[in-house]
């Protein structure tokens, strides 16, 4: 993975995190400026957006500038970015994830319009749907996975090129835990390709006892540590999945601290506990992934 070449250190770190989660191709530099980067949307590979960042990003009152070749996509992108922008906080990951349902809605609207359009209008709408990376004639193949889990997310944490994010959801049975995990792995390709997806859950049974279990997914002892965290936080009827993309540098025991950090934050953001995250500031939010 080539290193980002922006003169802005915070932007470099954010680009490295996005490349670890998605791929090197998600952001590429342009010849226009070292602060202008082309974003290739992972769920719409035919769509490209150019971002121009300030030298002081993210410590600026205004978000980065967005340009592109498809006006409808640019308009939506600017609106989503404005809703996510907070001076002093990086925003690209939240932007990429939040933009997806908006573009899917645009594709759906365009696809619906094709059925009432002329042959010429139908071709235009289908072409835009293709640009967004979606074939309206192809089913998504996920109808049997059940409803989307009500994930609450932590913020993305990067440490020595390893990237961590946690998801928490309310569950009431082991079957629901497995359904939610299966839904996540089958509908999110980047999560499915991650190095580890570590699971822990804790469910209160009618008898008052607890159904508890965990899965390291190759990250030795991580699942049991997450299970211990759920126990000492006294949460119930909840599952947590921590996704880690390994960056090539061993973290040693620090990896457990980071896994617990994002786990705790997802629980707080999901309303399972009322205590603040580290530093007293809630960075994450509920989200659909």
Give keywords.
289 residues; Ubiquitin Conjugating Enzyme; Ribosomal Protein S5, domain 2; 19% strand; single chain; four-stranded antiparallel sheet; globular; 8 helices; 2 domains; alpha+beta; disordered C terminus; six-stranded antiparallel sheet; 37% helix
Task: Please give a structural write-up.
Keywords: Cytoplasm, Repressor, Stress response, Translation regulation. This is UPF0029-domain-containing protein. Residues 121-133 have a biased composition (Basic and acidic residues). There is one protein chain. The protein starts with 8 loop residues before the first helix and ends in a 20-residue tail after the last helix. 35% of the residues are buried. Helix content is 37%, strand content 19%. It has helices spanning 9-21, 71-84, 92-114, 119-131, 174-187, 189-192, 222-232, 254-269; strands at residues 27-29, 36-40, 48-52, 65-68, 152-153, 157-159, 162-170, 196-204, 210-215, 238-245. It is an alpha+beta fold. α2 runs antiparallel to α3, α3 (92-114) packs antiparallel against α4 (119-131) and α7 packs across α8 (254-269). The protein folds into 2 domains: 1-138, Ubiquitin Conjugating Enzyme (Roll), CATH 3.10.110; 145-280, 2-Layer Sandwich (Ribosomal Protein S5, domain 2), CATH 3.30.230. The chain contains 8 helices and 10 strands. The strands form 2 sheets. Strands 5, 6, 7, 8, 9 and 10 form a 6-stranded antiparallel β-sheet that branches. Strands 1-2-3-4 form a 4-stranded antiparallel β-sheet.
